[in-house]
Amino acid sequence: MRKPTRRREVGRGERVLPGVWRLRLPLPWPGVPHCNAWALAAGDGVVLVDTGMHEPGSMAHLERALDQAGLRAEHIRQIVCTHAHVDHCGQAPPLRERTGAELWMHPDHGHLVASLADPERALGQRVEVARQSGVPEAELQRWIAQRRASGTGLSGTLQVDRELVPGVTVATDLGDWQVVETPGHAPSHVCLHQPERRLLISGDHLLGRISLYFDYGYTPDPVGEFLHSLDAVDGLDARLCLSGHGRPFTDVSGHVSANRALVGERVRAVREALAAGPATAYEVAERVYGEALSRHTASWLLTKTLCWLRHLEVAGEATRLEPAAAGEAERWGAGAA
Ligand SMILES: [Zn+2]
Ligand SMILES: [Zn+2]
């Protein structure tokens, strides 16, 4: 069989329900070919939930997707972002500017703003964490070069008009959507819930293809927060989930359970990795992820590993060991301090 040539990704728009359009926007990331923005009918226009990231040509992809849905950017009356990752808010500033629409977002998006205000400082901090975690120097240098060469993914400055917190509702023709705080994947993460129609816009909190990621270093225990957020969403009894990547899916509760199971599996694997003897976070990532830890995945798998370790530390099952010499990578051991 001939290997199919890779289709160039372009923006696509499709109606998934009356008054709900999925705008599928391409991403430049390996393994994550696109993200979704959602357009919700609201009077003579739409509410846009998430925006896609900013990169050369990205606005044209969004316009193409809107066009396929019979919409134009000028129809956007309000912009709502599920969380402060650039694939979800990267085009919010120019859209806000162009349409005059308000931008609504959770207040805990400060870390993105801070890192974009001073990218070198943010990069320096991440490099420090990576070095302390035992990432080999050559790999670290390659990653730094790659980071410097790629854009930030956000165009302009995020100016939020209204804080998206519980109690705030987003009004659409389908009814009001309620804000559910779901930190874990990102501190600023929220889901939108439409109770009468049992719809959930889940951002990256719940995806059709189970894939976990947590921001590290901004909150005490991202994994614990994520588990708590799974409970919050499970209690909503939604029947259809419109997620930040991939197709809409049903069996929301089944997906919640699968996420819980995967977290349990990974935590167990990290516990076992530590049982084999003290290790740096990078070595733990190697033990847990094995072959999957490649040049393309090392950065996010290391971030996740730090979150697993932190979760076990909070539970009294992992400890940061005193380094034998100054400047040495931090090692983790099993058990409480
Ligand atoms: Zn995200
Ligand atoms: Zn995303």
Written account of the structure:
This protein has helices at 58-68, 86-89, 92-99, 110-117, 119-132, 137-149, 222-234, 252-275, 281-289, 298-314; strands at residues 12-17, 20-29, 32-42, 45-49, 76-80, 102-105, 162-163, 169-172, 175-181, 190-194, 199-203, 240-243, 279-280, 318-321, 331-334. Helix content is 36%, strand content 23%. Strands 1-2-3-4-5-6-7 form a seven-stranded mixed β-sheet. Helix 7 (222-234) runs antiparallel to helix 8 (252-275), helix 8 packs across helix 9 and helix 8 (252-275) packs across helix 10. It is globular. With 337 residues, it is α/β, with parallel strands linked by helices. The model is unreliable at 1-5 (pLDDT under 50). The structure holds zinc ion (2 copies). The site of one zinc ion has 5 residues, from loops. One zinc ion (ZN) binds next to loops.
State the separation between the terminal residues, measured CA to CA. 57 Å
Structural class: alpha/beta
Largest sheet composition:
7 strands, mixed
- What is the H-and-E element order? EEEEHEHHEHHHEEEEEHEHEHHEE
Range of strand content: 15-25%
Beta strands, count: 15
Low-confidence stretches: 1-5
**Strand adjacency order, main sheet:** 1-2-3-4-5-6-7
Query: Helical stretch count?
Result: 10
**Which ligands, by name, code or SMILES, are bound?**
zinc ion
Give the mean pLDDT.
93
User: In percent, how helical is the residue content?
Assistant: 25-40%
Q: What is the alpha-carbon Rg in Å?
A: 21 Å
Judging from the principal axes of the Cα atoms, what is the shape? Answer: globular
